[in-house]
Amino acid sequence: MSKQEIERFDVGARMSEMAVHNGVAYLAGQVPEDTNADITGQTAQVLAAIDKLLERAGTNKGRILRAQIFLADRADFAGMNTAWEAWVSAGHTPPRATVIAGLARPEWKVEIVVTAAV
């Protein structure tokens, strides 16, 4: 039995943005760059970052196996869903969990983690 290679993207001292192994892309939590945006804007930024990483892995949002969404404030659930529903591919909506969590930076309203088939 041979070991499958692990390809890592944007490797840093603390973490990588993505790892691909055995036909699956595992993304780190993606967060917004412009923290002045409202929840819908921050979510749209995060989803765009996810699109770019998935493209680098040779896959796309229609192949997401699961998504984990972390919200700083329960009141932002509807606004996050507005951006999410505009982004997901009809007929390919992935299993998803959404939790309220204290994020690493107080200005972040959302963080999203996805796993996708390559």
Mean pLDDT reading = 96
Looking at CATH, the homologous superfamily is RutC-like
Which topology does CATH recognise? Answer: 60s Ribosomal Protein L30, Chain: A
CA-to-CA gap between the ends? Answer: 22 Å
Helix content: 25-40%
Strand line-up of the largest beta sheet? 1-2-3-6-4-5
Order of helices and strands: EEEHEHEE
Integer-rounded radius of gyration: 14 Å
Number of strands: 6
Protein name: Enamine deaminase RidA (YjgF/YER057c/UK114 family)
InterPro entries: RidA_CS (IPR019897), RutC-like_sf (IPR035959), YjgF/YER057c/UK114 (IPR006175), YoaB-like (IPR035709)
Family: Belongs to the RutC family.
Pfam family, one: Ribonuc_L-PSP
What can you tell me about this protein's structure?
- It comes from Roseateles saccharophilus (Pseudomonas saccharophila).
- Pfam families: Ribonuc_L-PSP.
- It is a single chain.
- This protein is α+β, with helices and mostly antiparallel strands.
- It has a single domain, classed as 2-Layer Sandwich (60s Ribosomal Protein L30, Chain: A).
- The protein is 25% helix and 28% strand.
- It has two helices and six strands; from the N terminus they run E-E-E-H-E-H-E-E.
- Strands 1-2-3-6-4-5 form a six-stranded mixed beta sheet, with helices on one face.
- Helix 1 packs parallel to helix 2 (77-87).
- The two termini are 22 Å apart.
